[in-house]
Design brief:
655 residues; alpha+beta; two-stranded antiparallel ribbon; 10 strands
Length: 655
């Protein structure tokens, strides 16, 4: 009822004599009506388009533009308004011409030939009196939709003429359209001249728009924008910090090209300007400048040291997480792209660990230093800075520090003795994770050092000594593999395997050492995450290990480790009163345990002492039943297991 009242009120306003009411009602109706209601107000919208009152005509054109985008049905109806749209284009009001041209383009956008005719018709001098004609609507789409080279060249020539238009909007749209075309540096010179003039405009929006377009040109033709450096330097003192950051980024790119050709003074001046203004910039602008510096270092390797020192100064300042992470990731990118810069870059990262401030960033930086230390010959200058994180960081940082020290030592044999001393100090940490990591790394490195010393001190001849040393010296790759490689199974799987091991009384009473090889194998746990709706919690479904039910019974756990378990096989139909499934657990010592999962589907009945009787095939008994465990009770809709233990004189592993 409320909707009917609102639409009726708006339609009443649309037919009143007050022009302002008609215009406002049209704007609102265009946003709330559906295709079925358009036919009811179509006559009023067409009348508004040809209305002599400018706001009403503009409202009608806007309604047509909006409705044509809502559905294909509306678009088909609006394509019939060609006569009214052409009449609106002949208006002397610039805004009406602009909106009418936009609506006409939407009507003809699917017809490439019609768009080309619109472009050729209205690009003639004097055909439109408005100053709001934009090449994005009237010219640029026509160039993209025309295959003819002559038509493209004609459009480019018209855009070059528009560069001299007295309206800043028309001239800027021409520069933006030309900069998006695949033109040469010589053809883009007039565009740069116009943008250079816009940089000194008194309007902030014009300066920002010119900077944005000039920045895109600088990425492809940095030498072409050198003539704009004077105006760019003046914009570094602008009141708008967004303009300042973009001016500095553009100036940095163009100055780097000058520095490559002439002198380094320009780059130093730009970096100093950035350093003075960076504290006042937004986080996004800072990250943009860092990315520009990173790309420049890759393009101009000779300026690496200058840019590295500059980024180090940035990293030492108090700044948001995103800004510092961009610097760290940029330096890591440098090292990966050019390993010869690794020594200085890693030293800068290690010195800046305390300045990273955020624990997550410190941990990521420690990991990067440890991984990239293999690219340098001597990592000993990094060790004091890395170990300092252990003294000052929280438990997560301390654990990451221990892992980083171990990884660096695995790549650098000559510093293992020093790292071992530091790791011994880490054994007294309060955190269990840190102590465990330190103990593991200490064991691996101690064994490696002992083997090295044993090989060096062996009493053999000099010729044989070299051979013995090469044969017995522990491989750095082997040591790194022990430290870097994760466990071959998850901690969850390890826990379940140890629990199964503890249920085996015979093994628990044995004096054999507990090793990974002696643990019973268990199946992986598969986790599947599926969201029920947009705001519901995730539902986790786990696949139960089929051996858990066997190891949970002491009598069966004493049989030893299960070699493998077969998939569950249905022995009955799902519609029967008692549903039975069978799983075979095969042992390596010619034993088989048959697990029968029995489900009671009979209401108001409870089964007790449930077992399964088995017989040989065709009277042949290959297996002997040496034990049986029955299910004590099975209630309605419950599933319990009963077991039969079989033994054979022949091997059953191939079964």
């Amino acid at each position: 009822n409320d909707i009917i009242i609102i639409t009726s009120s708006l339609m009443k306003d649309m037919t009143c004599e007050i022009d302002q009411y008609r215009a406002n009602a049209l704007r609102v109706l265009a946003r709330i009506i559906d295709p079925g209601m358009l036919s009811a107000i179509e006559r009023y919208v067409k009348q508004a388009i040809v209305d002599t009152y400018g706001p009403s005509s503009s409202a009608g054109l806007l309604a047509g533009i909006k409705l044509s985008q809502t559905s294909s049905e509306c678009a088909v109806m609006i394509r019939k308004w060609i006569t009214e749209t052409h009449q609106a284009i002949k208006s002397h009001d610039g805004m009406q011409q602009y909106l009418a041209l936009l609506l006409l383009y939407q009507m003809k956008s699917a017809d490439r030939l019609a768009v080309s005719k619109i472009v050729s018709q209205y690009q003639k001098k004097g055909s439109l009196t408005m100053t709001l004609i934009t090449e994005e609507i009237a010219i640029h789409p026509g160039i993209k939709l025309t295959d003819s080279f002559g038509a493209i060249q004609e459009g480019i020539n018209y855009l070059l003429i528009c560069l001299k238009h007295p309206s800043d909007m028309v001239a800027y749209e021409a520069t933006r359209a030309l900069s998006a075309l695949p033109l040469t540096a010589e053809e883009l010179k007039p565009v740069v001249y116009v943008l250079d003039r816009f940089l000194s405009s008194s309007k902030p929006c014009v300066r920002f728009a010119a900077l944005k377009t000039l920045s895109s040109i600088t990425e492809s033709f940095p030498a072409l924008t050198v003539r704009c450096n004077d105006n760019l330097e003046s914009l570094t003192e602008d009141e708008n910090f967004t303009i300042v950051s973009m001016a500095l980024t553009t100036l940095l790119r163009s100055s780097m090209d000058v520095a490559k050709i002439k002198t380094e003074d320009s780059i130093y001046s730009v970096l100093e300007r950035i350093s003075k203004n960076v504290d006042e910039m937004e986080s996004e602008d800072r990250v943009s400048i860092v990315k520009s510096i990173i790309s420049l270092d890759i393009k101009y390797p000779s300026r690496h040291q200058t840019l590295l020192v500059f980024l180090e100064r940035f990293l030492m300042r108090r700044a948001p997480y995103d800004f510092k992470k961009a610097i760290v990731m940029g330096i890591v990118q440098w090292i990966n792209d050019r390993p010869e810069t690794g020594e200085n870059s890693l030293l800068v990262l290690s010195k800046s660990l305390d300045a990273c401030e955020h624990a997550v960033l410190i941990t990521e930086t420690l990991h990067a230093i440890a991984e990239l230390s293999r690219l340098i010959n001597d990592a000993s200058p990094l060790i004091p800075h890395v170990y300092n994180c252990f003294l000052l960081g929280d438990r997560c940082v301390r654990a990451a520090t221990v892992s980083s020290l171990a990884k660096i030592a695995s790549h650098q044999p000559h510093i293992r003795t020093s790292v071992v001393i530091l790791l011994k100090n880490c054994l007294r940490d309060d955190d269990d994770e840190t102590r465990d990591r330190a103990a593991t790394a200490l064991k691996i490195l101690t064994v490696a050092i002992a083997e090295e010393e044993e090989n060096i001190c062996s009493d053999v001849s000099q010729a044989d000594e070299v051979d013995q040393f090469q044969k017995k010296k522990p491989s750095e790759d082997d040591i790194a593999l022990q430290i870097h490689s994760p466990l071959s199974f998850s901690f969850n799987k390890l826990e379940r395997s140890i629990q199964a091991y503890m249920l085996d009384h015979e093994v628990m009473n044995s004096e054999d050492l507990l090793t990974f090889e002696s643990l019973p194998p268990v199946d992986d746990v598969v986790e599947d995450e599926q969201s029920t709706d947009n705001i519901a919690a995730l539902i986790r479904k786990r696949k139960v290990d089929p051996t858990d039910s066997v190891y949970a019974i002491p009598e069966l756990a004493a049989l030893g480790k299960i070699f493998r378990s077969s998939p569950s096989v249905h022995l009955t139909e799902s519609e029967t009163e008692y549903v039975v499934e069978c799983v075979k657990h095969i042992y390596s010592d010619n034993k088989v345990v048959l697990e029968f999962k029995v489900k009671n589907t009979v209401e108001n009945q409870r089964l007790s002492m449930v077992g399964v009787a088995i017989t040989g095939y065709n009277g042949e008994n290959i297996y002997d039943a040496i034990g049986e465990l029955k299910a004590p009770r099975i209630s309605y809709s419950c599933t319990e297991s009963c077991f039969i233990v079989l033994e054979s004189e022949e091997s059953v592993i191939s079964a």
